[in-house]
Fold:
Amino acid sequence: MITVSKALYALGINGGWKIKEGQIVKWWADKPQPSQSEIDTKIAELRAAEPMRLLRKERDRRLSEVDWWTSRATDGIELTQAQKDYRKALRDLPSTSSPKLDDNDNLTNVSWPTKPS
Structure:
């Protein structure tokens, strides 16, 4: 969920404010308080970017699960073609997918490649 707090951090304001029920109730930051329009614009930008951010996060997790495959190559054990294809498909996901979020902010509309055994 994208909140006012996340928007303020994204605007480079790392503290000096208090939020209650989604509204700024106190401001003592060194930077000027952004307008509600600026906050709303930043929230919209963050919401638009969130599906791709989550895709990359999950993609990176899946890649890290199989990093040991490539480290074995230093011992002379080559990756199989299926392993190479899987890793490439994961790396390509940001350019081959159009991720979306459902009503519960879960990532959808992504076809994850099947991990070879």
